[in-house]
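Researcher: Hi, I'm a grad student and pretty new to this. My advisor asked me to get structures for two proteins we've been looking at. I'm not sure of the right format, so I'll just paste the first sequence and hope you can take it from there.
Model: That works fine. Here's the first sequence with its structure tokens right after it:
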Amino acid sequence: RNNADVELYHNGSKKFETTSTGVSVTGAINFDNSTSTSGLVADLWRSTTDHQGNTVPLPNWERPDSGNQGNISGVTNSSGVFSFPKTGIYLIQFFGRAFLDNVTTASQRCTFSIDTTTDNTNFSPAAQGHVHFGGGGFSTSLSTTASASCAILFDVTNVSNQKVRFTFGAGQGFEKVSGNSSINQTYATFTLIGDT
């Protein structure tokens, strides 16, 4: 109808209606074809090796090849710097696992950071998560572990210049960041959540 809303019902319950700003849907939308994910980006990368001390950027990343994990489209990685496949607003989450390797020595704060660039050259921190080991490691025969996380919403308007990397800052230099090629311990997720 011209200049009027349209409503669709199922068993007497409104499921779909047009509004002045678009549409409103009650319930789930299911797609039965392979093109339903063509505009989506959902990706996960994990660090595969341990590193000691300050590490900028964290190297050695892979998409998980275990645990039946997958991705939809995705970002690309070159020497620890990640590029985006298309413009949009991305939710970027970084989860880091730090550890003290068989020491009881006192440790200061360790930092996990998401760094961004808008000129493909100069990176600066956009979010940080911190690990505090307090008085130091628990034992000289066991590793002491701790985790931190941080997240940003990154508005990518230029895929050539806007990129992201992940870093680890060690408090005293002997702290380590954990990597593993079999399980996600230090990892990052990228989800395209909307248009720029």
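Researcher: Oh nice, that was easy. Here's the second one.
Model: And its structure:
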Amino acid sequence: SRIYAVNPDKSIRWQYAGASGPVGKISIDASGNVMFTDSANIAVNDRVFKIKPNGREKWDVFLLTASGFTPITGPDGDIYTSSRQGANGVPRYYRLNGDTGAVVWQTSPDASFVYATSDLAYDQAENKLYAVSTSRFQLFTINPSDGQLTEDMIKPFIADPITKVTISGDLLAVGATLISNNPASGSAVYGIDKAT
């Protein structure tokens, strides 16, 4: 797989060919660094990459089942990303050192349920990370400094998140499909007040 940076005139600025499997979602930080995941060997050798603005690799690290998730950059310059671990798919969240890719912390909720999880979202006003899961449709709030995770139930049933948490002032919004409960149920958007 290749990653291309394209100039405004549509010419190729650079291309990166170091990914050995399908490339996941891409993010770009304020300095122009590009982050993404790939899946070289599904569930075994997924990697997170950081590419410098000139197209040269800064680092890549192996993270079990991180492919398909979008790494994001926090205000500290470190990288935060989601993954799913093991046969039951329990989510795990990571903070990676922005300069080296070394794991600063990793955290995971109670492993007693099968989960799907969303990408992480960063709330600058509260200095918190948010993700949602299918286990009783929970909202995970994570402290970016130490990885401490708290769980809050959004609804007392299983719903699969189909969006990451979107943040606007005191409102958190997330989209979910309700098909796992009832194929005729469709989907819904939930608004959550951060104060409650």
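Researcher: Is there anything I should tell my advisor about the second?
Model: You could mention this: The CA atoms of residues 70 and 111 lie 22 Å apart.
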